[in-house]
What we know:
The chain is α+β, with helices and mostly antiparallel strands. The protein folds into 2 domains: 22-289, Lipovitellin-phosvitin complex, beta-sheet shell regions (Roll); 315-344, no CATH class. The chain has 7 helices and 14 strands. It starts with 21 loop residues before the first strand and ends in an 8-residue tail after the last helix.
Amino acid sequence: MSNKIRLKNNTLQAHLDFMNPRVYAVSVKYFDDKNPMPTKRIDYEAEIIITSNQGVYLLDVFKRAVWFDQHEPDLISEQISNELSQSLYPVQVRVDPQKMRLIEYTNYNQIVNRWYRNKGKVTTRYASKILSDFYSHFEKNLENRSELERSMEYDVFWNFLFHPNYIDYGNEHSVKTDFYLAIIPYQYPIQFKGIQTIDTHITNSDTVRIDFKSDEMLAAPYFIQEALKNKQEGPFYMQLEVAYYLDVYSLFPVYIRANFNVYTKNAQGIVTVIKRVEFSQYQQNVERNKKPQQKAQTSFLVEEKEEDQDHEIYKTYKGQNYTHQQWLKFEEEQYKIYKEKQKKRSFWDFWE
């Protein structure tokens, strides 16, 4: 193998054909001051499956095994968050196969239907007036397709996955660009301006590296208010650094590491970090990247299955067995029924 990858017209392009499904261990850690132990930590497993059919490339994202502060969800807030995540995922999108640009969400109806099926269990298990209002707000956003799609941008996992890495890096393999990261909970991503570079040399682990380093910028008001509450003195700054490692076979991420820092500087320029966030995403079983893709089965594959596979039982619901194609048809029919009933009556009539 050559010791470098080639960039066509200085532009990096992904090669998603025959890419095996990938499972990642994802971790987000939050630190305060000089404390070496995180004050908050979220870990989960994410699986990405890419399939193609007649030039249409679909990317399925699954989230599983969510842990909070290194334990399974036990607080009510953690359990509710986990339940809602199970209603949202898996998510399927159509992507540009060379630029890995998100084009559209393709399983919106299935997401809504999952919530309808899970809602009774969730709202019964965790019931209160405050939670009832919360569920209503969640449902309202879910039923608005544009709101649901916008809410996905509040997830740092999606920010890292769809950041524009497949771009023209110029003759110097270094460009000015922006990185949008939802570093503040439940708020639209912050725009970080900076420099992105690519090193085309192939590492011993068969990867190439992309780095983004933002300019130093004044800290967002959210972090300033936090610092002032803790009686810390400014001015306060923030900066983001991200490293992507792409395998040389598909040029798709194997590892992602990111560090976000909020800090102060004294007159001598000495930096004191007062808050930091670490993000990591590591692929499991990287040796599979060298092997050709096996025929992958996903929950919402658009491509037709082979005839013998379509006789397999995909799901059982209310005592009725469904093949994969029958289940997709059933979900579409249920969604149409719901929309018709919604025009005439309230949402709760759906459960009669």
